[in-house]
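Researcher: We're teaching a course module on how sequence relates to structure. For the next exercise, students receive a sequence and then see the predicted structure as tokens, so they can try to spot secondary structure elements on their own. Here is the exercise chain.
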Amino acid sequence: MRFRVRKSAHVLERIGLAMAGAACGLFVAAHVGSSIDMLTSQGFIVVMMIAGAIGFYLGIDTPALPFHEPNGESDDSDGKIDIAEFLSAVGTFLATWMAFVSVNVIVFRGEPHIFWTIMIMLGWVVGVTMQIIAGAIARIR
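Model: And here is the predicted structure for the students to work with:
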């Protein structure tokens, strides 16, 4: 019984992360689509939402490398970083930051220069891509 509850909780957590990613994609798509006529389509919004859902599903809560080797020695001496953990953290921050900025632009009816709109779009795409790569790396090892 305990295993089923734990497994169900994990599935709900992953679905929640995917929904948060889809919402972030929706916010960025709404802002970018309202500023760039070429990107004003339902297809663009759906692609952004799917990418966000995949990125947040795979890229958040990735299994990290252990801090200590099994023999008890510290792993800090060789200076290795956990690239999956790094990509996950930076990608999550970047994607959510761009979504946060997009929501602020929408809510406060801002009209940023097209350069900033493009930077928001690129920042979000880079962040979600980093999350997807992090999730793939963490699951392969």
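Model: If you want an answer key for the exercise: Residues 2-35 form the longest helix (34 residues). DSSP finds four helices and no strands in the chain.
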